[in-house]
Every structure is written in C-alpha cells, then in structure tokens.
Design brief:
single chain; 353 residues; alpha+beta; de novo design (two linked rop proteins); Glutaredoxin; six-stranded mixed sheet; two-stranded antiparallel sheet; 13 helices; 8 strands; 56% helix
C-alpha cells in the first residue's frame, strides 16, 4: 500500500507580514521627511541629529529621486509587494526580499561613500529588508506557494500602480531646489567676476569651492540651495571652482567648468551649475551639449565658447586661484576671507541668520 505523501509545512505568516508592514510604515514616514526637506527647507527632520546622522542630507542626495519617483515611495511599493506576498505565503517573497536587500546595501554604500552621512530611518528600512530576506530564505524559498495567475495583479499590480501614479501624477515637489526652470533668487557677478546668488544685501557671504565631478559637492550644493530657500534674503553664496586639474587647451581639461562658464555667457550659469551636479558627479565623461539642449541654450554658440582659448584661460585662472588659496579638497568654504570647516560654517550661519 502506497504511503501518503507528507504534507508540506505551513509557512508562517505573522512574522513576515509584521516586518513588511513595519517597512511600509517607515517608508511612508521617510516620504514625509523627503517632502518636508524640499518644501519646508527651514525645518530640520526629527531624525537629523548632527553631521553623522542626517536624514535631510540623504534626502538631498542624487539617488533620492529615481526615474521621477522619490526613493521612499520605491521602498513603500516594494514593502507593499512583500506584504502581499507574505500574506499569501508566496515563494515570491524570497526574490523580492533578496532584491530589497541588495538595493539596501547599494544605498548604504551611497550614504557612506558619497553623501557622508547616514539616515537612521533609511537604516531601519534596510534592517527590515534584511530580516525579511532571512525569514523568506528560511521558509518561503522552499515551502512557499507558487505565484498563480490570479495573484499576479494584486501582488505586483498594486505596487506598480503606486510607482506609476507617482511618476505621472505627483507634482515634482523637489524641482524648485534643482533650479532647472530658473533661479528663484537674485544673482549676478561680483567685482572679481565671480558668480553669486542670494541676498543683494547679505548678512553673510559664503564662497563655496566645488568640482563638478565630486559627489560630495553635489550633496553640499543641494544643502546650499536649501539654505538659500530658507534665508535667501540674508545669505549670499559665491561660486568658486577647484577642478583639481590643469585647464589648458593641451589637455582639453575642465570640460564641465568650461560648460558652466559658457552657459553663463548666455545667462544660465546657475541652471547649468545645477544640471552638472545632477549628471557629472562620479563620471569620467558627461555630455555637456545635452545640458545645453536641456537648458535651451544656443548650441553653436555654446560649442564655440567651449573651444575658445579665452574660456580655457578663464578656467585655468579659476584653478590657479584655488590653489593659491591652498584649497585642496572640495567642497571647501570661505567666509570673511578665511577657510572654515562645515561645522564652523553651520555655527556662523546659525549666528548670523
């Protein structure tokens, strides 16, 4: 007589559902922080506790919005899919949680290597994704139910709707701080020909030395724009450059610096400055002509300016001026004629603004 096949164990549901629900809740709170960072720049997040743990800084980083969708909403969609997969005891939970864990590792490295600070709420999300992956590997990978045709739509369709609805229907509230549609503050050139933005009669003037290929500079300039959004009537920022290379015609160097200068010749220096910080950091090459097209510049004039010996001379003079001031790293700040640390700058801004 044939023995009956053993009944497969019932996959537990309470623990993975709880973890996924917590991840969804934290992602929603993170989205609230993300919105507040851009729309209410004077307010500090409750999870910003100094230079090391700063959710606002991470919210301003280059990967805080991906494909037109804020990263917290990507997380919310992912945890929603995992919540539904856990509720239905699906084998699908394991690959979803594994993918979430890989994404968490990548985002953590981005925070540590490029942003230079850590978001405590983000780390809570990462830990929850890792715990879900462990639970799913232990139970759902072997004993979970297969994803049937009837479950495709509710399990994967609903999270996809969240992402698509955000991409197509949610206004890009982060756009004002990108300055792609114009500079929301007074701006011009000082007596030395350096570009400034902010207060016409400033209480404090900050020289910000940057390199467009520097990821840390991209984060720092986002913070600067946030400060200007809060104190644009009292703060002035002067853009200075330390490209850390020779900018002569022989090496065809400092392309991004030349691009900013040439956009400035057409009245869009700060727009190109912002565009470059979105597209150039960490890259060996960047198509600056694409930036000119995006900003509706006169392309032939822009290209001619890039190749003009006078442009190379200007760019090399900027690099030499930074070296003369012993500016070796970027970003670096100068206030009242002296170099200050980011901590000193924060204290000065708190005092004068």
């Amino acid at each position: 007589m044939t023995e009956p096949l053993p009944t497969p164990p019932v996959v537990p549901r309470a623990l993975p559902v709880t973890l996924a629900a917590l991840g969804l809740a934290v992602s929603i709170v993170l989205e609230q922080v993300h919105v507040a960072t851009y729309l209410f720049p004077a307010n500090e997040s409750f999870c910003s506790v100094g230079q090391t743990f700063d959710c606002n800084q991470v919210a301003l980083s280059r990967f805080s919005v991906v494909l037109g969708v804020p990263m917290p909403l990507w997380g919310a969609a992912g945890f929603l899919a995992m919540l539904l997969a856990a509720w239905h005891r699906l084998r699908l939970l394991w690959p979803l949680a594994g993918l979430a864990t890989l994404a968490s590792v990548g985002l953590l490295l981005e925070e540590l290597l490029y942003v230079g600070t850590v978001c405590l709420l983000c780390e809570a999300v990462h830990v929850l994704a890792l715990l879900l992956a462990v639970v799913a590997f232990w139970k759902h990978r072997r004993h979970g139910q297969p994803l049937t045709r009837a479950l495709w739509l509710p399990v994967l369709g609903l999270p996809a709707v969240v992402v698509l609805a955000t991409a197509f229907f949610v206004p890009p509230y982060w756009a004002p701080l990108t300055w792609q549609d114009g500079v929301p503050h007074p701006h011009g050139e000082d007596e030395q020909g350096h570009r400034w933005v902010g207060a016409e009669d400033p209480a404090i003037t900050v020289e910000e030395f940057i390199d467009y290929g520097c990821p840390h500079c991209a984060v720092a300039t986002n913070l600067t724009r946030r400060r200007l959004a809060a104190h644009g009537d009292r703060l002035r920022v002067i853009r200075r450059h330390q490209p850390r290379m020779r900018c002569n015609e022989g090496n065809k160097g400092c392309l991004t610096l030349r691009a900013a200068h040439c956009a400035g010749q057409q009245g869009k220096f700060w727009e190109m400055d912002a565009w470059l910080f979105i597209h150039a950091p960490g890259k060996a090459e960047v198509d600056v002509v694409e930036g000119a097209q995006t900003l509706a510049l006169d392309e032939p004039s822009f290209v001619m300016c890039l190749q003009d010996p006078a442009t190379y001379k200007w760019a090399d003079a900027e690099a030499k001026a930074a070296r003369k001031l012993k500016i070796l790293v970027t970003p670096t700040y100068r206030v009242d004629g002296r170099t200050v640390t980011p901590e000193e700058l924060d204290a000065m801004l708190d005092e004068r603004l």
